[in-house]
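Exercise: predict the fold of this chain.
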Amino acid sequence: MAPFKDEHILLIQPGSGTTLAQLGLPEAYTPAKHRFPTRMFPAEKPGEYEPHRIRKVTTKVPAPSTTSNEPPKEDVEMKDAANGATAEGNPAGQDASGNTEKTEEETVEETYYEEDVFSEEGAVYPIQDGRIVNREALFALLQHIYNLLSPPLHTPIVIVAQPIWSVEDRNEITRFVFEHLSAPAFSYVDAAFAAIYGLGVKDALVVDVGKTKADVTAVVDYQIQRRTRSASILGLGGDSMTDRLLELLGSKGFTREMCEQLKRSDITEILPPGTPLPASASQTAHQGAPPAAPATDSTGNPSAPTEGATENNGDNDEGVLDVAAIVSGNTSEYLANMEKDKSSNKKAGADPKQPKLPNSQKSTASFQFEEFVEIDDETAPGGAKRYKRNTREITVGVERFLAATPLEWARGLISRGILEDIAAQINYVINGVDASRRSDLWNSLAIVGAGSKVQGFTQALLAVCQEKFILAPSASFFTSEIPSTFSTPLPTGGTNTPAPMAQGQGQPGPMFHPAAHGVNPLLVAATHNNPGMPLAPGTPGMDPNIQQRSSGHVQAPNSVKTLKFPEYFSEFKDNGNRNAPGASSGPGSTSHGSHGHEEAIFLGAQIAAKIFFVVDQGQSKSFMSRTEYNELGPEGMREYAF
């Protein structure tokens, strides 16, 4: 088989809301270049789908002019007639040729079809909550992406698989790729496996927060721990936060699209537990600018001076000299007046500069809401719909900090909040891993997915985990593993009680400490800054294998951390949340805006595709070729895909 090239590899990551796609691997890995909404629309022919809604439009147009094919009539001799009489053979309402005069313009109905790229009416969503619910619509979406990108024939395909997909789903996708897309090679890559490739680690606890669900997966030594994997946990995605904002702001006239754009804006933030909400404007009015400060307009910018007022730039004019005044007048007098004015301004407190408050301390904030408004254009051909982009500024209060709180109907019943529920799933998955690797996973959290892009989400989730499941370092001294052989207390220092001696020596054993007084020897070692105190195998009552089976003596974790994203992927740097109206610039458009660490899965898919098709070239059965598909069929994919 001829080797594959970087520019010929097609990557597709289907999601519940958006499908990412890219043809070719760039030298410097970038976020997905194309983003498609994961939806299709039924076509006119049953069983077929279109990427956009097709509307049937019927309009009236002028009837086309018809030409008569009758033979020319003979000339008729014209005779004089009385006034008011008509020529013989020409009744009233007819011309000389015998045609009836048109009193009204004739029209006919004409039917045509147009695409409505903004409408979602009648849409079919092939993937819901991570599950494939309509394979035919999904295959139509894959075919649409393939046709739009138009790759060459020698193009291998990589699809990022969701953990909830069944074996039958994977087999049917494999069949479609080879038989309908005619791919020369094909491979799956698990979403969690792609995440650790993107982060460059072998151990991680991957938390993928999607549109309507979350997946929690433990990966140890490049092996996915499927026994305790939590896949497609409903109610823990980005839509849950949108629903909560709609519940809080719906009574104020907010629509779901407004709440969706609010969630994506910079002013929405999830605060760590215990953080007080900012006070209302009435409570903080006395903390505003001093009376001597200039007034500000509605935009927050200093207003222009009114008539009769003098404009004072304050410190901005410091160091600026009026050369004309110095040349034309007394230099020393001018400099003295300048110093006098500056000192008087400082005494009056006329410094207009005020410290800028962070978003978490502002009681109100504004964001830009963009929408497409239909235009009533009667001159449009055939009555076609036309839209214009409308932008307006909307002010929101402290409700923007409550996106992660539980819904009212679910409070205390099935949900304690999205952060608490995800933290509980993290604890459940980690407890299913070998005890010696649990602490490593607590310090290797990878929080990815578009739902985690909300400002403050990662920090708040870490704070919840720290509060509920992590012990303080000092508390771990009292929860140490006490071997059963230490049930007998040690000597208390009495004169008649012999201290345990090391075998063959006349010195006290290593478990003897003057300040111990029979307490836990591990606690003594920890409090005396001697955690690595050697335990002699000859000490009475000691297990000779205790050193080999000790795993840090801590059953509960004492820290939680997230993995550091590689700095050399400059295109994936976090630049804060970005308000992206309409879910993107348009269906199938080139990616715009900021996409950072939340897309580590797509980054890992690019790295994995490079290794599978270019570096390894199938030696490790990382992909299935067409020849192998012809021999084994789609069921043989389980032996090849990662």
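Check your answer against the key: The first helix runs from residue 135 to 149.
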